[in-house]
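Blinded run. Sample ID left blank on purpose so nobody reads anything into the name before looking at the predicted structure. Input follows.
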Amino acid sequence: MLKSRSFNSQYQQGMTLLEVLISLVILAFGILVLANLQGKIQLSDIESYQRTQAILLLSDMTDRINSHRLNAASYASATTIGTGDSQPSDCTGISSTVSAAARDICEWSNELKGANEKIGSTNTGAMTNARGCITQLQAPDSTAGICTPGIYQIAVVWQGMVSSATPTITCGQNLYGSEALRRVISSQITVGLTSCQ
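Blinded prediction complete.
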């Protein structure tokens, strides 16, 4: 009788050890899942921050064009503005009385490059590889009987962190490796003609 109790006791101790090991495996798996979830949350936060920055930059250029509506066509550019462009880092040499558009584009380029915030000498105030495009979609025409307003598209593009749907707007196309990493937001401005009734 004593022998069977001893065997039962040893068997019971072995089951407890097995239960502890199974619990540790389940706990380790749960921690791995939480770590993966935390990484995805951080990527989502970065994407959200970049989109907010892009909206602010888009709004800035929209306001600049709206404040110089009569010269809106001089803002249109055939090339991208921002990362990789030839705009100077100091726009004070560009007189705003000669060309408000040239000064505004230079300042916007520096904003796209993140020059407003720095850590040491590195620009950190914008999205990754931020660029902008200003395209004239429709030229203004004040011919009698036609009288069409000018329509301009402003787009801000940057490199996303994870793949997404490919944007249809062509600004910054083929500059980010995979098109699934290119992010775009855009806005259109319609500039009416004062000479039309």
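Unblinding after everyone has recorded impressions. The chain has a mean pLDDT of 87.
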